[in-house]
What we know:
This protein has helices spanning 3-9, 16-66, 76-79, 98-102, and strands spanning 104-105, 108-112, 119-120, 123-124, 129-133, 143-146, 152-155, 171-172. By secondary structure, the chain is α+β, with helices and mostly antiparallel strands. It has one domain. Strands 1-2-5-6-7-8 form a 6-stranded antiparallel sheet. Strands 3-4 form a two-stranded antiparallel sheet. A hairpin with a 5-residue loop joins strand 6 and strand 7. The termini are far apart.
Amino acid sequence: MTDHNKHNHNKRGFSLIELLIVVAIILIIAAIAIPNLMRSRIAANEASAVGSLRTLNTAEITYNTTYPNVGFACSLASLGPVSGGGSVSSSAAGLIDANLASGVKSGYDFTLLSSNCAPAGGIKTTYDYSANPISAGVTGQRYFCTDPSGVIQYKAGAAFTDASGLCSAGTPI
């Protein structure tokens, strides 16, 4: 054999078995990492939902102070930004961002539990907002709720509804 033939003979690539072993190792690492990534995402979405409910509490207090003859806003749109460059009013106070005003943010759906937002003498004296995961177990595990007390409560397996006693039916965070 000449030196030239020996040189070409040593330049072989990886065998199929070697490639399959590398792919198997990568798949094992991915199988370990993906569930942790999903748990981290759920935790981040839940933290965002709690932060958004705190923002709603602050916005409602500001709204109630700014518009005392209206009371609480009792709708996300009333707390939301002004469209078209107009000025703020009780129907668009500009206290929360457009994402939260839309009712969907970071895998959670924000809703007003409306039966507890009835006016007393024309002034809305209370509110209850719930935050429910859009896809339970995927975007979040827990359901959240808040009211004028400022306490954020949660339930592990069921949404807060008007019939559930509103936010008092949960566990405080």
